[in-house]
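I am writing to request your help with a piece of structural work I have in hand. I set the record out below, with my sincere thanks for your time.
___
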Amino acid sequence: MSQFLLYQLVNNLLQNSPIFYKQRHRYWWSAPDADGNKGRDTNDPDSEKPSLLVRYCRAQRRTVNTPRRIYILGAGNIGGFVAHSLAGLPHRPPITLLLPSQKSLTSWHEQGESIKLTTNGLLDTKSNFDVSFVRRPRPPEEASAVQDNLHSVPQSRDDPQDEIIHNLIVTVKALNTVDALRRVAHRLTRESCILFIQNGMGVIEEVNDKVFPDPATRPQYMLGVISHGIYHTKPFTLVHSGYGTTALAMLPRNIEEVKPQFEPSALYLLRTMTRTPVLAAVGFAPTDLLQLQLEKLAVNAVINPLTALMGCLNGDLLHQPSISRVIRLLLAEICVVVQSLPELQGVLNVKVRFDITRLEGQVLSIANKTAANKSSMLQDINQGRLTEIEYITGYIIRRGEEIGIQCVLNYMVKHMIKTKERLAKEKHGNLLPTESRDPG
């Protein structure tokens, strides 16, 4: 009787696990079993579907030999929050922070080699992280030789700069992604999984073009959208200001595949993220995650540039009749572009979900919740840094041009931000030649 009760308990726990959401209707994006099956064949009514416990054990076997170490590239607000959350797991995975500069490495030692997170006034400190300073990219011929050696000799911890990375979470700003990934590209293989958790869109296409142009050796990709409120008071000292969720989706290598196969590293990383309570992570289909990304992009394309241009807090956008008109005009262009995207044709309720009135309500709601905050774009302008405008407003403009829609107002806003960006850099005395994605 005790064994039966134990079996029922485990089954009930698994049924509430986000890894196996929608378990009654198995989709291709959910975790497959050891033989690559996704459950009962719907065309064969006599086929028997394995129990949930059996399917879970099979999925576990697929990743049993997957290296557990998780690397996090980017130690800002999101990277620190993810690292701190993973470190709170029982039987936590080994975690390595990849720091891109000597300054960040110095800050790490000065802050006691730990990450501090304050939630509801309670301070929680996590330590025992491994840290690695990532060097500049190797020359192509040297990187190629290292890549060949990685496949032919056993790996050790003696030279961490050349150790294969199986599980990588990228949280650097979108405009820094290509440069950051070039530093570790020689350590990534086809069996690796990269999880991108960033603001903006269009990064995947740029990474494919500039870092992993060969589909045969390209790592597996996963995308994440996080809605937690996080800010820092000093390096590696964070405040969890608002609870949210983390939406994840594994991207198939070929969008035309009916039942794409995912690397064991991707399944391991997805399972690890979804079993981390603080992250509140849930798996989604790529199309569903795309819509979540576009919703967040629409909000950012309004709040970020407007607050940066006017130098005001998020809450200052509220109850301003003139600004309300500008918001609706910007959203009108965004809605037309999103509703016309080829990848969303045939998806139910797209026109309702991306209606101007609904998105305006989301913009005002976010502005109200974060009324006392400075947007990230305004902070970048104030500190003389490059902004992510090309991956927010710029993405909308590019997608509109692809389908024959001219986003005139968004185009104007983008170039006003780029002008203010340049003026701010001149003011701070750090104007250097930079690569521009849009010479116009």
About this structure: The chain has a mean pLDDT of 83.
